[in-house]
Amino acid sequence: MPATIEGRGAGGIHSTELVVELSRIHDEVAVWLYLGDGWTGFSLSLDSAARLTSALQSSLRAAGTLDSAGL
Question: Which of 9, 57, 59, 65 is the least crowded, having the fewest Cβ atoms under 10 Å away?
Fold first, then answer.
């Protein structure tokens, strides 16, 4: 997913590609959502990912970039 991010330190604002993927580690039952650039990133439980989605939608609505239908 193409994205513009603000890096820390000397990185500044730059374009990058973000990876969003589901994964399961070995034979675990849990499924994780990874978000990152393949070099740095993090994995969230599906429950945490759902809460993050809700928080992002609320923030985007407040910024005026998302309507009440989620579009």
Answer: 9
Could you give the C-alpha distances from 64 to 12, 55, 59, in angstroms and in order?
25, 14, 9
Q: Show the low-confidence residues of the chain (pLDDT under 50).
A: none
Check residue 38 and give its pLDDT.
84
Question: Helix or strand or coil: residue 31?
Answer: coil
CB distance 47 to 38 below 8 Å: no
CA angle 3, 6, 8 (to 5 degrees): 140
Residue 68 and residue 57: Cα distance in Å, rounded?
A: 9
What pLDDT, on the 0 to 100 scale, is given for residue 9? 66
